[in-house]
Amino acid sequence: MDHRGAAVRSLGLVVLVVCGALAGCGDDAASFGPLAVQRPLEGSGDAANEGTLVVTDTCVHLRDARGRLVTLVWESDRVSWDPATRTVTYRDRDDGDLSLVDGDTIVVGGSGDQGGPETEWLDRLDWVSPPAQECRTGYWWSVAGVEEVTGG
User: Fold this and answer.
1) Sheet (strand 79-82) strand order
2) How far, in Å, CA of 118 to CA of 71, rounded?
3) What pLDDT, on a 0 to 100 scale, did the predictor assign at position 122?
4) Residue whose C-alpha is closest to residue 93's, from 23, 15, 32, 145
5) What pLDDT was estimated at residue 150?
6) Which of 102, 96, 106, 110 is nearest to 143 (CA)?
7) Most Cβ neighbours (<10 Å): which of 10, 38, 41, 62?
8) What's phi and psi for 87, nearest 5 deg?
9) Could you tell me the CA-to-CA distances from 39 to 26, 42, 75, 141 in Å, in that order?
10) 3-state DSSP assignment of residue 108
11) pTM of structure
């Protein structure tokens, strides 16, 4: 019987359990790819914004009905990024996972803002992974829900 293998497996299990128990353990900014991600919020807005998801190598935006690019800001416990498929997965508390790709028409719930000095909204949020400089459009939306209208 190889006791070393069992010890390594046990250590791996301990690391996984401890990591799962610690708040923010999975909040590695690099794992979110082009997503702008903040720490989870207590409340959420009840507004809605519809448009087309735009995914690039560095940004994830919503092109709204007026044609504006809106920087989407996701909560770290409700979103993940798959670089191999360039897929955003949103975890809805009631409806489960929703996979989104470039070109999908979606409705995002939450709240947003526009105008004013760009740094005002950047400074207000508790970032895990802030948007890259080229992703800051002057319009932003804090995502509190997603509904897919049509696939891309």
Assistant:
1) 79-82, 87-92, 96-100
2) 12
3) 84
4) 145
5) 76
6) 110
7) 62
8) -110, 135
9) 11, 10, 6, 14
10) strand
11) 0.78
Which among 41, 124, 111 has a CA at the least distance from the CA of 76? 41
C-alpha torsion 130→136→70→99, nearest 10: -40
Which DSSP letter does residue 33 get?
A: T
The pLDDT assigned to 118 comes to 60
Amino acid 22: pLDDT: 34
Q: How far apart are alpha carbons 121 and 46 in whole angstroms?
A: 18
CA distances from 87 to 11, 33, 35, 110, 148 (A): 32, 10, 11, 21, 14
Q: Which two tokens stand for residue 143?
A: 């995502």
Q: Which residues pair with 98 in a beta bridge?
A: 90
**Beta-bridge partners for 145:** 109
Determine the residue type at 130: P
At 108, list the tokens.
Answer: 């995002």
| Low-confidence residues in the chain, pLDDT < 70 | 1-28, 43-44, 115-119, 151-152
Handedness of CA 65, 67, 68, 69 (dihedral sign): positive
φ/ψ (deg, to 5) at 29: -55, -35
**Residue type at 48 in one-letter notation:** A
